[in-house]
Write a structure and sequence with these properties.
Strand order of the largest sheet: 7-14-13-9-10-11-12-8
Shape: globular
Number of helices: 28
Helix content: 40-55%
Structural class: alpha/beta
Number of strands: 23
Distance between the termini: 59 Å
Largest sheet: 8 strands, mixed
Bound molecules: phosphoenolpyruvate, magnesium ion
CATH class of the largest domain: Alpha Beta
CATH architecture of the largest domain: Alpha-Beta Barrel
Length: 754
């Protein structure tokens, strides 16, 4: 079975959501479908209860239906329990011969010898087991096993969403709400740029508490009946399905089941019954929707589980859609379209939703932005400013807002003078087509030294601009984005499809995959339940991958397979020691070996490199140079750890200095060591796209820069205006200073002579 086809089939599993109102019905349909597709006589699903450490048979096709709910196994008991305990697939030609086999009278499984048990898990969290059985002589092939492992991983996704509905009834808490703000009270708010761009549009505040309390306080003029409510449900479901399809076609790598939770809540019996009860008791339907939704929000807000808390936005969003459809203002499915969104919480999935609905810009109120949100916003071309002024959340919806996310200004209800200035700036801004016309196929300094200008890719949408602007390849593909936005770890097959698209789009140019950089501020909400005191220095990045070998190997296999004919480079993030690098390299070599033995096409000779992000690398740089094939300096983390300044903390932003003398001297030392041993050293952190630092980087010997596609033209032009002797002189002058203020003076002189 080829993986593209498999994914198509697995996608059908997602559609189970649409037709199921209970978990039982959903699981029944799942076993029915999997059994039919795989031609197995028996397909069963066991779900795991972590408190009891036991598995219960919850659905079956082929075994005695009366055994559902009755057959229970301890973790590790029988082949099924063993598969989950050890988190590995168990495949037997004749199950009854295995010493771990447990016989259950009355379930009639003795007729089926060929046995396959696949753990259903999200990361390291155990959820259940998918069991398939066939008659004697019909054993499972390796291809069957691989295909079914993908099915099991997709099932985990579906079951997780279903289980989240079961957990809806928890204690409540209060959160402060925002006071109303008159537009005149605020004029200009200075914020921090997270993603460049401009917008002038009416405001829409997304504030979980506020929007729901507004709905609760609203006096609905019309009176509606139960029929109207059911009608509104149908219309809302159809709109959400349409949105899901749209987001999937636009952002196929990241947008898995973004609206799944909405649809599940819409089908949830407890939710619907509560509303119906209120309506039957005489409450106007829009009021009933608002009240019941508010109860659910309160419940979710208090959850210890980050995944559950993330769902609060979904409930609020759903309530607004339902009420709009009830009172018939919901003709437009895109409630955020054409608005500047003001909010204090933003998850990656929210950003995708806002982008797919064509919101104009986002103002994130109250700081606390994680770096991946900013990176994602850039990839989605969504202008974003972080503003530390809670009054913004009190603005009435519809207030005109001008967002200048080039310098971080937010104008509330701007006057004609401000607007005129904005429009004249707009006129000189370059379109993508204009940029494509101006960019040169080769990047040269003014004295004709070639510089390799590569693109940083976060989402596949970035590839479009990168290709239009003729980048020389991908210097950094942040593979974590498909992991961050999903509700669980993407399977090898899913990763393979995403990675293949990237490789194909680059047509033989180098493609650098950075292995999963999860943790720190790049939180996987489905995994990072445990609060770490200091996540930036916690179980993250390469440490996470080495600790979760199965996840790491799956990713490496997907990269090697997708990179079959590519100029493939793999680099590891946050390497702190030679040992880290050797262990990570070992996983790649082992994967190459396994793929060769399995006869699966792959790239057996990827270049292996490392990110330089930690100060511990500096003292070992010559040792690393003897081992690695290339270096890529991640200045974002490198500066954070060199200077001990949290890159996401606004209050210490003034201490985050790329031009700190220690940073500059360390960079120079790294580049010198790399160049001396013939190892390419690129810079892929934000410093590479900050024009003022380009002469310094060229001056210390950097010849490869990797930047977000939006910066390609700008950086090419800066390079074209710089000669290597000038750059070397600037770099030497900067390296000779021991005080930041003196380095700033040099940067200033450089800027005025440009
Ligand atoms: C960096 O740290 O500079 C880097 C490129 O990685 P990220 O920004 O994804 O942490
Ligand atoms: Mg980094």
């Amino acid at each position: 079975m080829d993986s593209e086809q498999l994914l198509y089939e697995v996608n059908e599993l997602n559609h189970l959501f649409r037709d199921s109102t209970t978990i039982e019905a959903l699981l029944d349909k799942a076993v029915e479908m999997v059994a039919a597709r795989t031609h197995c006589a028996v397909c069963s699903i066991y779900l795991y209860d972590p408190q009891e450490r036991s598995l219960t048979l919850r659905a079956t096709r082929g075994l005695n239906p009366e055994s559902v709910g009755k057959v229970r196994l301890r973790l590790g008991q029988g082949l099924t329990g063993l598969a989950l305990k050890e988190m590995k697939t168990v495949c037997e030609k004749d199950a009854s011969r295995n010493p771990n086999y447990t016989f259950f009278p009355g379930i009639f499984e003795e007729r089926f010898d060929a046995f396959l048990a696949l753990p259903i898990a999200r990361g390291i969290s155990k959820m259940g087991v998918l069991v398939l059985q066939r008659g004697t002589g019909e054993s499972f092939t390796e291809a069957d096993v691989r295909a079914l492992e993908t099915v099991a991983s997709q099932l985990a996704n579906i079951i997780e969403n279903a289980q989240f509905l079961l957990g809806m009834h928890e204690p409540r808490s209060q959160r402060p709400t925002t006071q109303a703000t008159a537009a005149g009270q605020l004029k200009l708010i200075k914020g921090k740029v997270a993603s460049e761009g401009f917008a002038y549009a009416p405001a829409m505040v997304i504030d979980k508490q506020k929007n729901l309390s507004l709905l609760l306080q609203h006096r609905f003029e019309g009176h509606y009946g139960i029929e109207d409510f059911h009608d509104a449900i149908a219309r809302t479901a159809a709109q959400l399905e349409e949105l899901q399809e749209r987001v999937e076609s636009k952002l196929s790598d990241a947008a898995s089941l973004i609206f799944a939770a909405h649809l599940m809540i819409l089908k949830d019996k407890a939710f619907i019954d509560k509303i119906v009860q209120q309506i039957e008791g005489g409450v106007n339907p829009p009021v009933a929707v608002a009240e019941v939704s508010s109860q659910f929000v309160q419940t979710f807000l208090t959850s210890d589980n980050a995944y559950m808390r993330e769902k609060v936005n979904d409930i609020e969003d759903l309530a607004i859609r339902l009420v709009n459809n009830l009172i018939r203002v919901g003709e437009d499915t895109q409630i955020y379209r054409g608005h500047v969104i003001l909010t204090r919480d933003l998850y990656p999935s929210d950003l995708l939703k806002l982008s797919s609905e064509e919101a104009c810009a986002v103002i994130l109120v109250g700081g606390g932005v994680t770096s991946h949100i900013a990176i994602l916003a850039r990839s989605l071309s969504m202008p974003m400013v972080i503003a530390d002024n809670f009054d913004l959340l009190g603005l009435p919806d519809g207030t005109p807002i001008l967002v200048d996310a080039e310098i971080g200004n937010v104008f509330v209800d701007p006057d004609d003078h401000v607007l005129e200035k904005f429009h004249s700036q707009q006129r000189v801004r370059l379109t993508v087509e204009e940029q494509a016309r101006l960019i040169q196929p080769e990047t040269l300094t003014s004295d004709a030294v070639p510089i390799r200008l590569l693109a940083n890719i976060n989402l596949l949408t970035d590839v479009v601009l990168a290709s239009k602007l003729k980048c020389s390849g991908v210097g950094l593909y942040r593979t974590e984005f498909p992991f961050i936005i999903r509700t669980m770890f993407p399977s090898e097959a899913e990763q393979f499809v995403i990675y293949s698209k990237l490789v194909e789009s680059m047509r033989g140019k180098p493609v650098t995959f950075r292995t999963l950089d999860a943790g720190g501020d790049k939180i996987l909400s489905y995994y990072h339940d445990i609060q770490e005191q200091n996540p930036a220095m916690g179980m993250r990045s390469i440490r996470f991958s080495l600790q979760n070998r199965a996840i790491f190997s799956e990713q490496v296999r997907a990269i090697l397979r997708a990179g079959l004919d590519a100029d493939l480079r793999i680099m590891f993030p946050m390497i702190s020691s030679v040992d880290d690098f050797c262990r990570a390299r070992e996983v790649v070599l082992e994967s190459i070996d396994t793929l060769s033995r399995q006869g699966i096409a792959h790239n057996g000779k990827p270049k292996l490199g490392m990110m330089v992000e930690l100060p511990s690398v500096i003292e070992l740089i010559e040792d690393f140079a003897a081992l690695v094939e290339f270096f890529s300096i991640g200045t974002n983390d490198f500066i954070q750890f060199m200077l001990g300044v949290d890159r996401t903390n606004d209050s210490v932003a003034d201490f985050y200095l790329p031009h700190h003398p220690s940073v500059l001297r360390a960079l120079s030392r790294i580049v010198r060591a790399g160049n001396r041993s013939g190892r390419e050293v690129s810079v892929c952190g934000d410093m590479a796209h900050e024009q003022q630092y380009v002469p310094f980087l060229l001056g210390i010997g950097v010849r490869t820069l990797s930047v977000d596609p939006a910066y390609l033209l700008r950086i090419q032009q800066t390079i074209a205006g710089t000669s290597i002797p000038e750059a070397e002189a600037t770099a030497q002058a900067m390296l000779a200073q021991s005080r930041t203020c003196d380095i700033e003076a040099i940067l200033k002189t450089q800027a005025t002579t440009d």
